[in-house]
Structures are given as structure tokens and as C-alpha cells.
Amino acid sequence: MRNLSYIVLLLCFVGCAKQPAEQGSVPASNKYAEGFTLTQTDSSVIVEVFQPYQRMEITRPLQRIGTMSTVQVGFLYALDAIDCLAAVCNPELIYTPVKGTEIDLGDSMKPSAERVLQAGLDILLAVNYGQYDNLEAMRLEKLGVPIIFINEWQEHSPLARAEWIRVIGALVGKLPQADSIFHEVEEKYLSLSAERSVSPKDGLSSVSEAVSIMSGNNFRGTWYVPSGKNYLAYLFKDAGADYPFYNDERETSIPLTVEETIHYFHDADVWVGAGGNSLAELAQIDEKHTWFKAYQSGRVYNWRKQRLPGGQNNFWERGVVHPEEMLEDVIHILNNAPDSLLHFANRLY
User: Fold this and answer.
1) How far apart are CA 23 and CA 38, in angstroms?
2) Is there a contact between 333 and 272 (Cβ–Cβ < 8 Å)?
3) CB of 48 within 8 A of CB of 36?
4) Number of domains in the chain
5) CATH number of 255's domain
6) E strands, the chain, in order
7) Each residue of 293-324: pLDDT tens digit?
8) What is the pTM of this model?
9) Which of 72, 43, 60, 51 is nearest to 7 (CA)?
10) Domain span at residue 321?
């Protein structure tokens, strides 16, 4: 996979801050992420990204950045580098406040080559979902568009996904700031995980017994649930929940029949990631949703609390940058905490 393509780019652009990239020590290796490495020299930061393999030497902060994923908008916003965003795919899906002057590159699955060229980008942040995306990227690359794949979605744990902020930090000359943000996120996440309960200051008791949890929805007779290598399963485990597939090593979601789902989750205490906006809507989507204990007790949640009327959802932007807030949500859900304490999760009524 790492040999699908090889790209070496020397980037010497004048950046947003119009100053050389901030200097600071770069850790020899990542703590969690496996999809990239960073190496600092006296005058640059070398970024290596895998699947496909790319090597880029960053000597100046980049000024005009395009992205094919809303997740990267969240990274740029966290780094106070949103002014570097010059072009986006599917702008109608972006939750984060942006300038509004960004060039619309079209659909993320096949951006308009004409618009990409028109944007005059220093770099396009691409997403590698498969061979088609590699071919599309190579087509744009032949037109002279510098591209780097941001594959945080391929990481297994929430902290590994969040650590990709370091790549974005290197591109915009804010690597020390990215490291600082990630360190704070990691510290809070690990502290919450160690407690496995909400803070006593919230007036809520610790989880005395593991609360069982279920996830997903019935879609045309198949229920897809997170495998043990999925970031949601990591959240469940780090929150202290009881979940039957922690030891499942599959890279993709686990497809279950309705019968299998009932076997594993009929008596689950809580249900997260439901597809409806209310219990009534969930029942209308599929009557089988009402068969579960979590539905009958009203402990059902989706990830839409920070969602705008147009469907823009901050869960996919801030949530990736701040997994400690996602973990806090799961802990609160297990403790049946008041809805006001939740960041991204929304209880269905």
C-alpha cells in the first residue's frame, strides 16, 4: 500500500504569517498515530505520509490551502489558521465558521479539476478512501496541484486521529502550537479514562457496574457495529462500558443480521449513534428499533447536538480534534447524566 505512489515535493511558499515556520523540538515518533512521521531539520520540517507514500519538505508556512474533507477545517480552526483555507469541497457541509470566500471545489468524491486549478493552491488536503481516490489525486497532480493525503480516519484510536493535527500544524508553520493542543487533549483524555466515571463535582455517582452499550442502526436488514479496532469501540472501552466486540480485530465495521443484533444487544443499557432525531422517528424508520431495552427505557442518543439545520455537524470537525469531549459524552451517557453536560451527543425523546 505504501508503494502505490511516491511523491517528493519541495515547498517554498510564503505563508499566512509571512514568517519562517516556528521552530521547536519535534518528537522522534508519534505517540499514537501510525499514518505519518515528522522530522525537523535546521530549516524545515519533513512530513512523510503513508498509504500512499508521500514525502514533503516544508520550509515556509503555506498560505492557500484547499481541503476535500470537513475534518481538516476543524484542524485549521483549532490552530487559528482558518484564514489559510482558500478552497473546499462540499462547503454546504462545513459547520466551522469560515471566511465565506473559499472556492467551491465541488463534490469531495470528484472535485472539479478546473476549480482546483483556479484556486491557485499551495496544497490540497486529499482523502484516501481507495484506489479511485489515488487515481483522482494523480490526475490533479499531473496538472501541477501539490497534494497530500490526510488519513486520520484510518487510525484506530481517538487519540491517534487527533494527533494528525501535527501534520496540519507543520503545513501552516504552527507545529509547536499543534503539539501543545494535542498534549492538552491527551492529558484530559487519559485522565478521564483513568477515572472511568464523571467527576464528583457534577453530583453524579461513579459507574459501580459496567453499563452495556450498543451502537448503529438497522439498514436494509444489516446492522453495522464498530469492531474492536474502531475509534468508537476505543471510546466505549476507555469510558468503562461493557461492549461485546472489543476483541474483534476486523478493520471494517461488523455486519450483523437483525437476529444477531438482538442476541448481542437486546438488553443493552444505552444506545449511542442512533440515526433518528427522536424516538418516534427511529420507530418510523424501522419498527425493530423499538425492540431493544435502551429504546424502551429512553436511553438512546445520536451525535447531533451540535448540528445546524442544513445538516452541518460539528461532531466531524471539533469531535476529531477533541476526542476528550467525545469520551466525556460517553461517560456522561453511561451515568445517565443531564443532557446539559453533553458536548456532541443528543438524547432522543
Assistant:
1) 13
2) yes
3) yes
4) 2
5) 3.40.50.1980
6) 6-11, 36-40, 45-49, 53-58, 65-67, 85-88, 103-104, 123-126, 147-149, 213-215, 218-219, 222-225, 254-257, 270-272, 301-302, 346-347
7) 999 999 999 999 999 999 999 999 999 999 99
8) 0.88
9) 51
10) 196-347
